[in-house]
């Protein structure tokens, strides 16, 4: 069988633990036998990040900037326990955070819909995609515990030497706590643009919710910047048949639960953090949630939304069989391939990616699935597939389809 030629390289970022094991299987069984492809490989495994003083993460991010498309395996974000476990030089930062800040991107999470894996919410029929603004608010806040009576104030000192602005926050009669947070117009604007671009690309409606009734200036600022960007893009949105809705965040939550899905829900940072976990769980399994980082200048990084599935890895190391869901990792590869094909104008690469996705979904619909899905499948299935067994069934189907 002749391999399909992928013209431009894809940046491949290897990772950790169980997902690293799965990654290798996907590459060997589902990608390399079918594609003639150049992979710019970066090993983001914990050990190699430590060996390179995390330089490899920065190099990988720069390679995505250069080539435009990357695919990433889940990686360990070290905490104190990991520093000990891997004998690390220091507690390196989250690779995802590093890549995100270099690409200045927005993360979109989209669940994979499979007929016999019904969502917890009966009305959901189409994906609910969450776009999370990944800069600022409480993630870049400053906090202060006050231990005695006094006045907390917010002070802005202009760089041009003009008059300071002082706002009283609260006059404390006793102990309490204060928080200061910020965002920038530039970041909010590129978030709104990224959401508009994604909605146009996927042809889905765009929703944005905030709490501007209470936070008239902070949340109001977000609402206004978003509205300006939507206004500037109104011809593109209209041409793609996309409606924009601004709602109070409470209303957005209620509407999302009642809706059939099929929209991009743009969320402020904290809302996106919390709601993406709610939506992922509602659609079934973390193993069905995909994630893509999109930069304002059109660079893409695809990955599974879940982590390295450490518990399964330790079972694997003990020699016990595992049943880890590889679907979101497979879809990271197909997402990257489809985007590569789109950017290179190679429809056969796009078609290969779509074919692989179809086969994965059909395999589950035919009753072959890992344990996490078996627990929620309707109708009930009698047994679950082990990690490699699932990938082997998909590989056999793919081989049959391609020859
Ligand atoms: P996790 O890897 O997402 O796994 C948490 C649990 O969710 C698993 O123990 C498993 O439940 C279930 N699960 C997740 N993915 C699954 C899959 N593909 N198939 C079957 N079950 C799945 O989160 P974690 O254990 O909290 O984190 C492990 C490491 O991942 C941490 O070091 C963390 O820093 C890292 N992490 C990386 C990323 C990333 O690179 N994007 C994201 C999140 C976390 P059961 O145990 O019940 O089977
Ligand atoms: Mg979260």
In short:
The protein is of the alpha/beta class. The protein has helices spanning 17-31, 46-51, 55-67, 80-85, 95-103, 185-202, 218-232, 234-239, 249-258, 269-282, 310-317, 327-344, 347-365, 371-374, 387-402; strands spanning 4-5, 10-14, 35-36, 39-43, 69-72, 106-111, 128-132, 142-146, 150-156, 165-172, 176-180, 205-210, 244-248, 263-267, 289-294, 300-304.
What labels describe this entry?
single chain, 403 residues, alpha/beta, ten-stranded mixed β-sheet, two-stranded parallel sheet, 15 helices, 20% strand, globular, binds NADP nicotinamide-adenine-dinucleotide phosphate, binds magnesium ion
Write the layout of secondary structure elements.
Layout: E1 4-5, E2 10-14, H1 17-31, E3 35-36, E4 39-43, H2 46-51, H3 55-67, E5 69-72, H4 80-85, H5 95-103, E6 106-111, E7 128-132, E8 142-146, E9 150-156, E10 165-172, E11 176-180, H6 185-202, E12 205-210, H7 218-232, H8 234-239, E13 244-248, H9 249-258, E14 263-267, H10 269-282, E15 289-294, E16 300-304, H11 310-317, H12 327-344, H13 347-365, H14 371-374, H15 387-402
Parallel strand pairs: 1-3, 2-4, 2-5, 5-16, 7-14, 12-13, 12-14
Antiparallel strand pairs: 6-7, 6-15, 8-11, 9-10, 15-16
Helix pairs in contact: 1-15, 3-5, 6-7, 12-13, 13-15
The structure holds NADP nicotinamide-adenine-dinucleotide phosphate and magnesium ion.
């Amino acid at each position: 069988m002749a391999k399909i030629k992928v013209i431009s390289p894809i940046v491949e970022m290897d990772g950790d633990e169980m997902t690293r094991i799965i990654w290798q299987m996907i590459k060997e069984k589902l990608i390399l036998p079918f594609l003639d492809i150049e992979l710019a490989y970066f090993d983001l495994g914990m050990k190699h990040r430590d060996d390179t003083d995390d330089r490899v993460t920065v190099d990988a991010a720069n390679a995505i900037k250069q080539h435009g498309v990357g695919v990433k395996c889940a990686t360990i974000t070290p905490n104190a326990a990991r520093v000990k476990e891997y004998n690390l030089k220091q507690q390196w930062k989250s690779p995802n955070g590093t890549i995100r800040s270099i690409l200045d991107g927005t993360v979109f999470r989209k669940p994979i819909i499979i007929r016999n894996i019904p969502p917890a919410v009966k009305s959901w029929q189409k994906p609910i995609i969450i776009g999370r603004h990944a800069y600022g608010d409480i993630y870049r806040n400053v906090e202060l515990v006050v231990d005695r009576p006094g006045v907390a104030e917010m002070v802005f000192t202009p760089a041009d030497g003009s008059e300071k602005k002082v706002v009283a926050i609260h006059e404390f009669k006793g102990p309490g706590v204060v928080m200061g947070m910020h965002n920038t117009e530039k970041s909010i604007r590129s978030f709104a643009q990224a959401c508009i671009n994604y909605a146009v690309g996927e042809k889905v409606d765009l929703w944005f919710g905030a709490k501007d009734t209470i936070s008239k200036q902070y949340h109001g600022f977000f609402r206004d910047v978003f509205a300006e960007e939507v206004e500037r893009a109104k011809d593109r949105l209209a041409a793609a048949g996309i409606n924009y809705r601004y709602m109070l965040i409470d209303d957005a939550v209620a509407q999302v639960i009642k809706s059939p899905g099929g929209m991009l829900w743009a969320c402020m940072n904290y809302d996106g953090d919390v709601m993406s976990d709610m939506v992922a769980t509602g659609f079934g399994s973390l193993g069905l949630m995909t994630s893509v980082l999109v930069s304002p200048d059109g660079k893409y990084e695809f990955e599974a939304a879940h982590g390295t599935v450490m518990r399964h890895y330790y079972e694997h190391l003990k020699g016990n069989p595992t049943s880890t869901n590889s679907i979101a990792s497979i879809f990271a590869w197909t997402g990257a391939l489809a985007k590569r094909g789109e950017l290179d104008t190679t429809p056969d690469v796009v078609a290969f990616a779509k074919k692989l996705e179809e086969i994965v979904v059909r395999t589950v619909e035919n009753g072959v699935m890992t344990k996490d899905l078996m627990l929620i499948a309707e109708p009930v299935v009698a047994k679950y597939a082990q990690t490699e067994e699932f990938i082997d069934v998909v590989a056999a189907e793919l081989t049959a389809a391609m020859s």
